[in-house]
Amino acid sequence: MAVVKRVHETAKQIRESETLVRLLSMCLAIGNYLTGTSRQGGAYGFKLEALGKLVQVKSADNTTTLLHHLAAVM
Q1: Residue 8 burial by CB count (10 A; 0-12/13-18/19+): exposed, middle or buried?
Q2: Rounded to whole angstroms, how far apart are CA atoms 20 and 28?
């Protein structure tokens, strides 16, 4: 029963995390900016599996990723 209680507490912390909401909002805003003129632009949300692509978007000099940028901004 202790494991179920811990999972419940963790889920509650995730739901109430303002920082997580800000981070996911920023990911959505950046994604909408990058796809702004395509038919995918202006999305209202994204699937969590898309977060794995943050390391695939690289800078022009190929030294940093979008994940690095988000970490610096946050």
Answers
A1: exposed
A2: 12
Task: Tell me 53's DSSP state.
Answer: G
Round to whole Å and give the CA distance between 40 and 42: 7
**Residues in the chain, how many?**
74
CA angle 43, 14, 32 (to 5 degrees): 15
Query: Has this prediction a pTM greater than 0.85?
Result: no
Q: For the segment 11-53, what is each residue's pLDDT rounded down to a tens digit?
A: 999 999 999 999 889 888 888 887 777 776 677 778 888 888 8
